[in-house]
Design brief:
The complex is a heterodimer of chains A (about 525) and B (about 300).
Chain A (H helix, E strand, L loop, with lengths): L1 H24 L13 H10 L1 H4 L3 E8 L7 H17 L1 E8 L4 H10 L6 E4 L6 H6 L9 H5 L1 H6 L2 H5 L2 E2 L2 E2 L2 E2 L9 E6 H6 L9 H14 L15 H8 L3 E2 L11 E2 L8 E2 L5 H15 L14 H6 L5 E5 H14 L5 E5 L17 E4 L6 H13 L1 H9 L7 E3 L2 E3 L6 H4 L24 H11 L16 H19 L6 H15 L1 H19 L2
Parallel strand pairs in A: 1-2, 1-3
Antiparallel strand pairs in A: 3-13, 4-5, 6-13, 7-11, 7-12, 8-9, 9-10, 14-15
Helix pairs in contact in A: 1-2, 13-21, 16-17, 20-21
Chain B lengths: L1 H10 L1 H33 L3 H7 L11 H6 L3 H34 L6 H13 L4 H11 L7 H4 L6 H11 L4 H9 L4 H12 L1 H17 L2 H6 L9 H18 L12 H37 L1
Helix pairs in contact in B: 1-2, 2-15, 5-9, 5-12, 9-12, 9-15, 10-11, 12-15, 14-15
Classes of the chains: A alpha+beta (about 525), B mainly alpha (about 300).
Amino acid sequence: MFHWRKGSILLLAAALAALTGCSGKSGGNGAPAETGSSPQGAKESAAGGAADTSKFVKISYLVLGDKPTNGQFEKVLAKVNAIIKQKINAELEWKWIEWADWQTKYNLALASGEPYDLITIGTDWLDTWGNAQRGAFMNLDDLLPKYAPETWKSIPQEDWAQSRYNGKIVLIPENDYTQWVNHGFFYRGDWAKEAGITEPIKDWEGIGKYLQYIKDNKKGVIPWDAGSGTQTFGGFVQSYTDELELPISTGFLPVFTAKSYDEKFTVVSPIYEDVFLKYATMMKDWADRGFWREDALNNKNNNRDELMAGLSGLDQHHTQTFSGLRVEMDKKQPGSDLQMFPFSRTRGTNLMELSITHGGTSVGAHSKNPERALMAYDLIRNDEEIYRLINYGIEGVQYEIKDGKRTQPAGFDSTRDGYYSDFWGGRVDKFEIPSDTTWDQIGTLYAEYDKIKKPYVYGQFVFDKTPVEAELTSISQVTGELGPAIVLGKAGDPAKAVEEFRNKLKQAGYDKVLAELQKQMDAYKAQIGG
Amino acid sequence: MEDALESRSVRTDLSGLVVKLVGYVFIGLFALCCTLPFLLVLGTSFTSESAIKLHGFNFWPREFSTFAYKIVFENPSLIVGSYLVTMGITAVGTAVGLFLIAMTGYALQRPDFQYRNGISFFIYFTTLFSGGLVPFYLLITQYLSLKDNYLAVLLPGLLSPFLIIMMKSFVRSIPHAITESAKIDGAGDFTIFIRLILPTTTPALATIGLFIALGYWNEWYNAMLFLSPDMKYRPLQLFLYNVVTKADFIRNSAAASNVPLQDVPLESMKMATAVIATGPVILFYPFVQRYFIKGITVGAVKG
């Protein structure tokens, strides 16, 4: 029995390898019929898994997002299912968690014991460890090598190590997909050039100089139409210290950080360091020089719209946003040459990758067909044709490939033809086709990041808030109350404002939270053997 | 009450006039406070998004636009379906709920009903303590298997402790002698309830009915929890809520996910959905309003 089974799995693996190899040859121009036209491989896999796949099953996949209403999704899924049915005698079924109150619904769906097969996870935004603790996910250690061999092989052991809860693998990480969500300022290259800034801006003083030029020379333009809710302190800390952001929310401003990458388990606070005063002073100066509106604190304008209308000169967000915005800007403000100054550039040391478990997939604890679920997942992630169908739709309808880039076909109508599947559970770079809505030179930024990036180290750290719940709430109140005015330089004398902020934070229970956080961080260090 | 005011005004003309004047001014101001926000909502819903950005909200649209309504009504069959679903749930829920609440309220105040205090406590207890969201969710989805079933929205709203207590105190104002005399005449309990109690409690029924109907009309949370997007038509409020969150989401994530940014009139859309949702209620309200006031005062005084 054992031998037979092992044999069948080898056969299956071989069949899959053959399939992926086959479609791989077609490269960027993958013709839709490619994989299906490999009858031999399909037959083999069907025969190989015969014992497992004799019964037809439906595999449900829990995803986050609003269900598309134009019928395109159903069409694409039907195509996907035709292939999957042939290969493993199963069909996929998307179960959508809509954005309305998604946190409640997602957690309820996991708590209810409903038999979901595959589940989208995200350790930093979907409370995955908490759900793992409540037993929502199946232990995958034994199943993965057998039923998702491609995936199992392609993910290195150190990444699997980050996918374990209590020593058991509970999720498949999205470890092979480049996403940069590090923040920075976006500025207009053309205006910077006029201002005599020829080198890419690499510090906040440079941004100050740029904004001053706009203030002096561009009539009707607000250098930066910053609105209420603007928060740049985290970026300033990233620019001028080696301190790392920790996955703990303290409301408006980040209060706790790790000292540096070398001392990543030592908790400190930038609030009580010179960097906070320096920041407050600079923001006061910027406000006094009129870089943003007098009433910026109540400003509800959308700065990004203003930027695209040529009425604002600066924006602040992360790299992914930039890569799309740059293309938009090139259309709306030709020649604007939008550039990004990532906060990490200043010192060139402080940049962590996104957690590889920001996205991923788990198998539900109550799944009735975990084997087939994993086989289906293995196909989504490793079969180029299925992957592209699920992520991009049907070639010729949703997209076509021109010069190696994904573009909308002529006559594309987004209401009628628009497509998305919200598959965030295991995208891989090797099958991604660059889109013409992302900047084609984003690679230069990526190359810059690659030189200094460090792996994310807090993927498995979950701060247990219960011992300091009340203090954390007070801290959030202080940051929410005093923070916005400091950020926009409207808090009067910076030294005094900083002093008041620090005092109030102490009263709110800063020391107690710090001690608790350090205690848990020490435990985490011991746990992962760092 | 009006008579009393009249007779006094005959005696002291001036003070009566002052009272009236103050009364009218006060009520007028209050009415203004209620209508102005709605007019603002109405005006804004017809304003173009760019004008909202530049000038803020206005009573009179600076730049007239029906774009927000166009987006909400993008798929007319969906919104009509949602309306019908909500109306159906409201109609059935109000009829059944009213009947059940009236019966419960009546039974609970009958002095010859031995366990009325125990059961009253049992009902009252649920207003203070509840199992919480997760058990409620499990009950509906696992034990009753009502996921994707309109009953999941209908059932939880049928009986409300607050309304039962209100009904109870109202029925108490009807002398028990009526029940007893009917009993002597040979009427059964159900006949007494249908033939004698219901007709004498119309003001209370109108009030409570309106409460229930409003509850069902505005209901979206249970619908959100239990009716998945696999259902084509879902209650109106949920539909509108989704339209807004979707727009919100598109706006916030468009650039991040490299979706070409579309001009979504978010602010005016929110207002448009509010108008669509409140419209029918505003039309309906005047017809039951007179019962409403009578019922609520009677219930309060005699309770």
